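Troubleshooting entry. The earlier prediction with magnesium ion gave an output that would not parse, so I re-checked the input for stray whitespace and re-submitted. Clean input:
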Amino acid sequence: RAKENGRNTYQFYTAEMNAEAVNRLMLETDLRRAVEQGELVVHFQPVVDAAARAVTGAEALVRWRHPQRGLVAPGEFLPIAEEIGLIQDIGRMVLRTACAEAAAWRAAGFEGLTVSVNIADRQVTTGRLHVVVNEVLAETGLPAEALAVEVGESLLVRDLPIIDEVLGGISAQGVKLVIDDFGTGYSSLQHLRRFPFRTLKLDRSFVRDVLQDAEDKVLVETVIAMARKLGLSVVAEGVETAAQLDWLLGQYCDLFQGFLFGRPLPPEEFRALLGRPLREVEAVIG
Ligand code: C2E
Ligand code: MG
Ligand code: MG
Ligand code: MG
């Protein structure tokens, strides 16, 4: 297209690309400083057991409280963090913060809550994550069974012995292994069997259109049925409406996460939510 329109368009693209490169360089510099100065914060999104009508835990999600840009989403800075080698530091910080927060929930009487932490592939392939997990649990006093780690399908398709060592080591401590965004990658049933997963998170792209799209419906039904037979629990991500919740309950999906129940919240707001009645669930299941 640029070629067709001639030189002007070409120059336009170049200017735009320069602006992007400058922006990117600024972000890089900012990000290094942000990690040192503690600008990265962890928010918590409730995970709900509808049958028990209770919050069973939360997913820890990192955000960047940027002095000028405001709250920056992880999708905008984690890829940069990976490239410039900051992902290990960030990952350890998130893990430590999440475990300390979960230990505080338990100390406040909310026992049995689980905190779920996202793990970048690199933390597993080069990070000795099983050792880090062990250290952080000891440091924060959180029992291993109150922690879950979420890995993506992109990790599982890589055939590296270190992955078995790290995931096996984490699981052996009693920490739950979760497969995140299930259905978006290229993992097979073989991968599901190779690692001791306890929970499968159904990607929100399937949940979004499940009431309109016949194919998504079949996929979701099948994945939930398969997970149940394998003894895995299923978390449906991205549940936004009562109608989605209602349909998923009919499929015997038991755990839910989405804006219907709550957005990711700063730690103090998440704490305030604990112990409140779950009106959204009651509206659907009575
Ligand atoms: P994820 O692990 O699949 O996390 C769920 C994402 O879906 C979160 O986006 C959450 O805010 C969003 N979400 C939850 N419910 C709804 C809903 O009902 N509707 C919509 N539209 N969105 C919903 P977020 O916080 O922007 O995180 C994006 C991704 O960034 C995460 O996807 C995860 O892959 C990654 N991430 C976040 N925090 C960390 C972290 O600490 N470490 C690593 N390695 N990755 C992280
Ligand atoms: Mg996740
Ligand atoms: Mg997910
Ligand atoms: Mg997702």
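This one parsed fine. Residues 181, 203-204, 237 surround magnesium ion (ligand 4) (CB under 6 Å).
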